[in-house]
Design brief:
Length: 116
Amino acid sequence: MYREFLTPDDEEVYEAVGEWPDSDESGARALTLRDNSGQSLIFSYDALARSVRIRWVNDKGIEMMDIFRESATRLSFTSGQSAKHILIDFQTGECTGTLEIQVTPHLSIRDRLLFQ
């Protein structure tokens, strides 16, 4: 069954993380976020393709992680006094899950994909 990928508008993204998304070469929305130690995270999402990509680059410019995933159903951004997060929900035929990215004060990624 097809599910729509619900994404916030650019203004909501800016209000949550303090950065405006750009468009990449494929037309997906993209954000480049940096933490206090100089590491960066390039996060892109394509609402029509229902996909996300996360690339984590350390402070020396070396790519540490590259994740691409389809079947996204919901993208949200949260911002508190001590941390900012990106949350992506996924739904495939037999699995459901959440990918949680902490953007500040330091980068971290938690991924959960479980059978229903």
